[in-house]
């Protein structure tokens, strides 16, 4: 790729930065400098880079830099220039993620400032410091023949994210910081181009690095379902993209936010829901819940009998939802003697509801799923456990229900739509269904109907038509 100059990787002790440093060394760079707030990690990464370097005169430097501190950034840049004489390629990969999702109104202001400090101010300080070096250094000749293409004094690559373009719920500080990094990259690209310095922003979706380690299990499942490529990106793939943006092959690419997310952000949310529920309960992206059932010990004291995730898991629709039965009783009052009720509950999947009994049903909905209009002739207590749902009644009345909101449906004809994250995220509801007496409207008996849901309950014994 015509990588012959000196690379400076900021935040190169781990993840994307580290593997990009290795790729520069492999591709023939004259030298690689790796800085990081974690000097040990930078030293270790440097050892690996040295081991794969292919340039016979390969030069190396690892150093401590805290990108939030201007002096530290400037001292680091000077050290690199003192050794290499110039900086041809700079990747600013120092960055931090957020510990967990939180509604914007609940985000800790200290955390918000810290993310801005590292991701935004850090990227700015390095751009300023390295930009000043690049704009005054001699242009490098490259092997590309056309002289208009060959003139470059240096290239800078920022680390944006698909979150530079999209906004996921609960990710306020990260999304804001990555929008800002893209803005920084664009304005720096316009400012520095007159000096022969190109600036671009790489915007990956989820990449397999330590940054996402704590979220990895849920993420792998969610990304498998959401990303058309069906997996997380590899750091060697982000490294390839950085090398392209740094090489003269991308000589006409400037101020670009290069989205590399396997096609996720261009996917329509409705398409994302089809086939989403092709895994075990819970649906990808939702918490695994624990069902705890009690019994009595020999002294009549209450003890836990079992703990599991529920029974009779059943994928619904076009793999767009999964139901799990948390408990059911075939009669009221319930006979607890000898734990017969526990056996009965485990024995078979209950119908929509049991005449004279109870059914506690949990349903995980894929993103953007809208169920059909239907009426169950039962009293239904519904609780939103995760996400945001739109409930529409047959009169046309609508309500938005959020986590913790409760609906008491008295044989209502209704339909649900999962609108969590504007149709990009899964949601979860819990329903308790209780039998009712026949109900008459204007002396006509009101009947239940299940619409497209009927086929979901075909093999469950009695479907209610009282
Ligand atoms: N991993 C992903 O899924 C993903 C996706 C899109 C964008 N990104 C972005 O890519 C960049 C690199 O992420 P990663 O996944 O390789 O993370 P990582 O945690 O593996 O590496 C980040 C590095 O930055 C260093 N760092 C943190 N604070 C620093 C500071 N103040 N000064 C200097 N160095 C500091 C860390 O020590 C670490 O070595 C980040 O900006 C991240 O937001 C990551």
Automatic annotation (TrEMBL):
UniProt keywords, alphabetically: NADP
InterPro entries linked to this entry: NAD(P)-bd_dom_sf, RmlC-like_jellyroll, RmlC_Cupin_sf, Sc_DH/Rdtase_CS, SDR_fam
Keyword Glycoprotein on entry: no
One annotated GO molecular function: oxidoreductase activity, acting on the CH-OH group of donors, NAD or NADP as acceptor
PANTHER family to which the protein is assigned, alphabetical: SHORT-CHAIN DEHYDROGENASES/REDUCTASES FAMILY MEMBER
Family assignment from sequence similarity: Belongs to the short-chain dehydrogenases/reductases (SDR) family.
Record's protein name: Uncharacterized protein
